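Quick one, probably user error.
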């Protein structure tokens, strides 16, 4: 956690928000929801509209809901259920994210290639999963540079399973699987 007692998270390329809400559920289960601030960005206005609403059509899957309930019951012993986080409307085949999760996220339209970071805070964690694969190496490096500049020292960058860092940025992060920690080591140039 940064020195300000909050965990600042940037979810870049958040699409319609399901992964952002999943992240918030994890923070809540860890008792950290009140200590997290989430900035979720995407270039698509339509995707951001869906994410802000937190209402998903054709999403009711009984097996998935039962699995959710079982995992939390086994791992924590609590009676956390899907209904703690979502309202289910079976008649209209729709689930809605509970307001207490939606209010934790600031959704911002942002172009990773063209725009500077759209907020003033440095962040502890950047999630950018399965976005960089759509860009060439030069654009990837430009985006990763923004992430690097926006992270606190020892901040964490989480990429998708098929993504990685190349060239210069391999020296600026320590890698553990798809997770990269911003290095505190100053690399001297000669």
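Nope, works fine. Designed sequence:
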């Amino acid at each position: 956690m940064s020195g300000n007692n909050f965990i600042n998270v940037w979810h870049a390329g958040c699409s319609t928000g399901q992964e952002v809400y999943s992240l918030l559920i994890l923070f809540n289960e860890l008792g950290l929801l009140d200590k997290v601030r989430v900035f979720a960005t995407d270039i698509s206005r339509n995707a951001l509209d869906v994410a802000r609403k937190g209402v998903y059509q054709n999403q009711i899957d009984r097996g998935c809901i039962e699995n959710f309930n079982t995992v939390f019951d086994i791992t924590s012993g609590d009676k956390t259920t899907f209904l703690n986080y979502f309202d289910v409307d079976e008649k209209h085949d729709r689930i809605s994210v509970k307001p207490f999760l939606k209010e934790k996220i600031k959704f911002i339209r942002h172009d990773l290639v063209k725009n500077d970071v759209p907020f003033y805070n440095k962040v502890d964690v950047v999630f950018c999963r399965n976005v960089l694969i759509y860009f060439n190496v030069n654009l990837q490096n430009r985006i990763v540079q923004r992430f690097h500049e926006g992270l606190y020292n020892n901040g964490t960058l989480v990429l998708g399973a098929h993504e990685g860092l190349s060239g210069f940025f391999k020296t600026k992060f320590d890698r553990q699987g798809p997770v990269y920690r911003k290095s505190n080591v100053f690399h001297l140039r000669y």
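The CA atoms of residues 12 and 128 lie 5 Å apart.
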